[in-house]
Amino acid sequence: MSPNEPNSLRSFQRPDYSGFRTISALVRFNGMKFKSVIYYVFFCLWFIPVGSLAGEEERFSVSGHIKDSKTGEILIGATVSILNNGTGTTTNQYGFYSVKLEAGSYNLRFSYLGYEPLDATVELKNNLHKDAELTPRATTLAEVLITGKSTRTAVNNLEMGSIQLDIKQLKSVPVLFGERDVLKGIQLLPGVSPSSEGSSNYFVRGGEADQNHVLLDEAPVYNPSHLLGFFSVFNSDAIKDVKLYKGGIPAAYGGRASSVLDIRMRDGNSKDWTATGGIGLIASRLTVEGPIVKDRGSILVSGRRTYADVALKAVTDDADSLTFYFYDFNLKANYELGSRDRIYISGYLGRDIFTRKEAGFDSGNATMTARWNHSFNTELFLNTSLVYSDYNYGFRFAFGKAAFRLNSGIIDYSIKQDYTWYPNTKNMIRFGWISTLHKFKPGNFASESDTAAFFAPIEPQQALESGIYLSNEQKISRRFSMNYGFRVSLFNNIGPYTVKRYDDNKDVLDSILYGAGEFYNGYVGFEPRITANYLIDSSNSIKVNYNRMYQYLHILSNSVSSFPTDLWTPSTPLILPKIADQFSIGYFTTFLKNTLDFSVEAYYKTMHNLVDYKNGAVTVLNPDIEAELVFGKGRAYGIEFSVNKTLGTLTGWVSYTLAKSEKQFEAINFGSWFPARQDRTHNFSIVASWQVLEQLNISGNWIYYTGDAVTFPGGKYEIDGTLVNLYTDRNGSRMPNYHRLDLGVSWQFKPRKSWNSDINVSLYNVYNRKNAYSIDFRESETVPGTTEAVRLALFGIVPSVTWNFKF
Amino acid sequence: MFKIKYIGVILIFIAGLFLSSCEDVIQLDLTEAATRIVVDASLNAADGECHVHVTRTLGFYASDSSDQVAGATVELIHESGSKIPLVEEGPGRYRVTGIQVVPGERMKLAVTLPTDEKYLAETVIPGPVFLDSLNLSRGIGDPRPGGTPVFLLRPEWQDPAGVDNYYRFKIVKNGELQSGFTIISDRQVDGTLQEQPLFRYFFELGDTVHLEFQSIDSVSYSYFNQINDMARPSFVAATPYNPIGNFDNGALGYFGVYFSEVRELIVSLGR
Question: Is the ipTM, as predicted for this complex, more than 0.95?
């Protein structure tokens, strides 16, 4: 049996799907021979101990945390260089590093982008704990000009297809309504493009929007957007680090086919109490942070709320008029229990609220993460996390005496452990496990009065998603290093649930009822992840990568826009997990004294078990939604070029992507390949920030991409007096190409004794291009009987002003 | 059925209004699709009248709304084999009256073009269902700013249990036919009393309402449902496709049978 062909009822041909199918059958089913899996695992396990056994000489570790000297924030991905032998390491996501060396005297250099490097000499006779505090570089113009060597390590490091977004750089990117936004920022990167105008959703390397994992302090955020996506839920004041993995996804991550966006909240200032905030045209924000106990623990509280509703009420003086707003609330606290233990609590709560007298809608996310960092010794670091995530939405509407309510959502409870083991300077081994209980609450209408419900109930579902992983980052020789490992993911549907089979008329053929707690269906996925880096010389390298990703949760949606009502559903006996295989190769170089980074990456990706609706599907409140689905596959390939300038008065990047993304469904276009909606041939963006004076910064960005592949009518006809459009090939037409220029100016006021502030003016869509959000084909309102194409452009030129302060 | 996606439309409309959205007519080059035959055929079982409209599809920007196909031979074929020819009353428009049918029986419609292409469709006659009452209800959007009350139509009827039923509401407000297809299936509510308001149409005091309540066959329901799917604004609509009816040989359109009942009222506070 071909493993990944489009299918409908195939999984039902198996007589029994309770519990796991046998491992070997499953792994073969998932497209890889069991033997090769064993070989691969053996390969990984064989390599790992080699390094750790190699050190016969007496070796000691130097380990510790790297922090910001002003705020005490830990620094993620900071570099520790051992100047004596040219080796080094980087801090993990908790700011921890460890290096094992022979006894002796060493010169260490701690460095991080945007910070003054710090040198230290250590005498290594025992295991040593060494924390380092780096001072941010002053941003005065004179110093910007003389700053030295780039600390970026794109050439050297073992990461590929990943980009760490500089939050400080992001702050100068002009944006819609002046609301700085990490999700808008990443859409300017090569290989990434917005799903539609102003949207927080995005496509990565030809994948669909639901294939991106968005994590906030390890908690999945199921709907990272406010107000139909025009704003993301991430308040940039509370964010420390943003990292996007488009490929080369580490084995520690799993669950989505395309990408991982790992967002870390700031820990809060552990030295002094500070407040930062901003007042904008449509929203204001305030962050207060400070030490719980100086240098041992800190707390950060951050809030943001829009006030368009207040403004609207003031204008219309209609008390009953529509109210709509959203708010975000972030909380983070951490405390160092000792040099070996640190605990963190972080939480996020955000909601969108739209109400009118007799109808209302609200939606939002809540996440909570509790973490415990523990170093067993100088070599072994452990993080244990408990994670909770809840996304839900609700409607209420009333007419006459009757009132109806609908609530729907998804809740996750996770427990995970991630170990980092530093056996020596040549190897860094990561391993761990995660187990998540997903609870899916589908949309159900409930009547608040005695009126009979007019929709059949939809059963809630439960599933357990687990993963274990092992990977090693190994320096094989001075020039050659590899990161290899694997993840095994497991997915189980858990009762109570009624599994149904359908015929071609979408009628139920038969059904099986599973009891509470019964594991009635399971999948196992073997996910190899491997990246190799070959250094040609100190400023040129070539990297190759292969990874396989399994995705067990899916958004069933067939419309262009993203709606709060787009709901996540689990894989079931019928809906197979999505599988993506990606192969990529890249060349990385720096030139002009390391001030310019250049990279080119090519990728080829195949996707299996993609889901789409049948034509005419009843997609809303349908208990038999599985009868409305068709399954197919996809492929995407492309090449990404990027030039990045991180130092000097002029910084920014230029990126260009040439790409293709196609799909194949038996039931669509007679089974031939057709372009996916997100098949954007050309995607170009330029982002620049110019520090003209000490106080004055001018920034701009211009983006261009090929219009989406869509289906436009090629004719028309009439049925019962209603005009109906005649269509031809699926996605055979193109939306007009998209392009837009944004500009921003920010002025830093002279710092006062206890506070400073800046003002930011930005213009979105400077030349007022009417980019089509959608095009509708309909009967003319002015000339009856004729038809016309009507373009909806969401934003013309949008000016905005924001005043930011800090004291 | 109340579509949640409409909330999306409302939200985006509000957002758009508040921001700086704009709609304009653009000239877009479209690839012209090959011409196809369209048969729009329905039989009203209540009064025994059958109307068939045979056309060809037009280019999207064509100024006419239809390209009539005259001179076709159109016949109703009862399951017993008896044939009833339709008469061409105007170019492309065919009609016959006095047809008597029994629910559950199968009926076919055959169209033969002057060029000899043949198209055949078949359906099953649905059972008749009648309204218990037609009421008015106040709800969403009521009252309008300024205090004008807004009314919704609230038809009440008992859905017969154990059979698939499909309904359509055709509404004429102050002499003007309201566009679109308002249809309901009993798929999830079989055998229950139906009394939800029609959210799609709003009425004010003094409006004249002419409501045609049709119990339609599954072919019509599925066909209209597909047309509705395509009629939503494109950013909430499904990926476009051509609705599939019951004609063979690649003809667009459908042949459906329905029973209908007409109610009229004038909107007043007393109701």
Answer: no
